[in-house]
Design goal:
Layout (H helix, E strand, L loop, with lengths): L7 H13 L4 H17 L5 E3 L11 H9 L9 E8 L4 E6 L6 E3 L5 E3 L4 E2 L3 E5 L2 E2 L5 E2 L5 H8 L5 E5 L20 E4 L2 E5 L3
Parallel strand pairs: 1-2, 1-7, 7-10, 10-11
Antiparallel strand pairs: 2-3, 3-6, 4-5, 8-9, 11-12
Helix pairs in contact: 2-3
């Protein structure tokens, strides 16, 4: 892969194909599940926004469901949310998700919760096609996540999730890019500004 290129469309295509072709993707996903579960243990947030996995993305929902079950008197109401696109503003809102909740497809064919409560997450788990230094994330190019983060007050903490093959050491920031606070792969926590 030509890591010197900053042609984001070409990088996305190459990284998605590489992710889909990872011969040990299921094993890597199991490792990443473990890393994420351990990382979540120390997190203070009660509400987490995530995503429905597409195109070979890591699925964070099993780890999040285990996180949500670990409620106690100090953390009584943990919520998991999945994004719903607001076409008018090009942003995302997060609706409560739980195993078995009613789902429907959005305009992009991605499942979303149907008629569940909307909330603002304190932590967002963000899918990464690729990632670079200083919190840079390469997404799908629609800008939904960057616009959403720019508009949320207070801004939630953010953690990128992806496989280590997606590291792009020469990725350059674009003006709209909102850096991530943490990046987590199957190899561990790549960076975490809080810890």
């Amino acid at each position: 892969m030509d890591l010197l290129s900053n042609d984001r469309a070409a990088l996305r295509h190459k990284l998605i194909q590489a992710r889909l072709n990872l011969p040990d993707r299921l094993s890597l996903a199991e490792q990443l599940q473990s890393v994420l579960r351990v990382w979540l243990v120390r997190r203070p947030e009660l509400t987490i926004g995530a995503y429905w996995p597409i195109k070979g993305e890591f699925d964070p929902l099993p780890a999040l469901y285990r996180w949500s079950e670990a409620q106690d008197a100090d953390r009584p109401s943990r919520k998991i949310g999945l994004p719903v696109v607001d076409k008018t503003h090009g942003t995302l809102t997060f609706h409560v998700w739980y195993p078995g909740c009613p789902m429907e497809e959005d305009a992009y064919g991605i499942p979303k919760p149907k008629d569940t409560e909307v909330f603002e997450p304190q932590l967002l788990l963000v899918p990464c096609v690729g990632y670079g230094p200083q919190g840079l994330r390469l997404g799908y190019g629609g800008g939904f996540m960057d616009r959403t983060l720019a508009g949320l007050k207070p801004r939630p903490a953010t953690a990128g999730l992806g496989y280590a093959h997606g590291f792009l050491p020469l990725l350059k920031a674009e003006p709209h890019d909102v850096p991530l606070d943490a990046m987590i792969t199957e190899e561990g926590v790549v960076w975490d500004v809080n810890g």
